[in-house]
Design brief:
Mean pLDDT: 84
Shape: flat
Radius of gyration: 29 Å
Order of helices and strands: HHHHHHHHHHH
Strand content: under 5%
Largest sheet: none
Structural class: mainly alpha
Distance between the termini: 44 Å
Helix content: over 70%
Oligomer: single chain
Low-confidence stretches: 247-254
Number of strands: 0
């Protein structure tokens, strides 16, 4: 009966800690957003630079909605603020869940968390610097005669966010593969066996999330496939290291019984196995 109030207090304390962590995470994003707000238009111009460079001579982007010239740059500033504050947000998440993890889980989770952030940003940079020029060059070149290529700023934001997410998630493939391997959900051999299906799936994903030109599809599908191979290699290495660490941990935790403890254990076993007739 006494454990019920203790469990209730523990639950309330966890809720309070979660609230505090969320407030700090949101506050970090808001503070960065306030700092970036005066440069919202400049941030959108920077985001639109790959498209502007491919627009025909004399053409420009347009705004088809009344308030989009204000709200679209604000959205870009807000998304940028979230990306800049992401380390703080992830730290708050880590600080909340870390006490509930075992030590070996903390050793593994923190590097994977850091790697996932770096890989996501790498995927976004890959899309911005390499993919966008190819995509927008293709779209501008495919414009029919007599049609003015002048994209709407809101539609452009939705388009680039889709590509950012697609390439960011694609670059997370090694982390996903490693997690599948080290948690014994899938073996390395199985991942190698399904390689042909992954390659086909990579090109299907490339066809879905990129414009209908072959080059941009390849620029998404090939990195996805190569990152899958990297995940298999790293997962295999970590899977070989993990059993050795488990054995080492077991050996370090094992403490042999003293002579006195062994005598007491033998006496206990002898008493348990002693028959009633022997006792009489």
């Amino acid at each position: 009966m006494s454990s019920s109030p203790e469990k209730h207090d523990s639950f309330i304390s966890h809720l309070i800690e979660l609230r505090d962590r969320l407030i700090r995470a949101v506050a970090s994003v808001v503070i960065v957003f306030i700092a970036l707000f005066p440069w919202a238009n400049d941030l959108y111009t920077l985001l639109a630079k790959p498209l502007i460079a491919k627009l025909p001579q004399g053409s420009h982007m347009i705004a088809t909605q009344v308030a989009s010239t204000f709200f679209i740059p604000v959205k870009v500033a807000m998304m940028t603020a979230f990306l800049i504050a992401l380390p703080v947000v992830l730290y708050q998440l880590w600080a909340f869940i870390a006490p509930g993890l075992y030590q070996h889980e903390r050793k593994l989770a923190l590097p994977l968390l850091f790697a996932s952030v770096v890989l996501f940003f790498t995927g976004m940079a890959f899309a911005y610097f390499l993919v966008f020029p190819v995509v927008f060059g293709f779209l501008a070149g495919a414009t029919p005669e007599g049609v003015s290529f002048a994209p709407d700023i809101g539609a452009y934001l939705d388009f680039v966010m889709t590509l950012f997410i697609a390439f960011g998630v694609t670059f997370e493939v090694p982390v996903v593969v490693i997690l599948l391997v080290i948690t014994n959900m899938v073996s390395v051999e199985k991942l190698r066996d399904v390689r042909p299906y992954v390659i086909v799936g990579a090109f299907i994903i490339g066809a879905i999330f990129t414009p209908p030109d072959v080059i941009s599809q390849i620029m998404l599908a090939v990195p996805l496939w190569l990152l899958y191979e990297v995940g298999i290699v790293l997962g295999g290495v970590l899977r070989k290291v993990k059993p050795a660490e488990e054995i080492k941990t077991y050996e370090s935790d094992y403490q042999p019984m003293s002579d006195e403890e062994m005598d007491e254990e033998f006496d206990r076993i002898e008493k348990e196995n002693k028959s009633p007739d022997d006792a009489g």
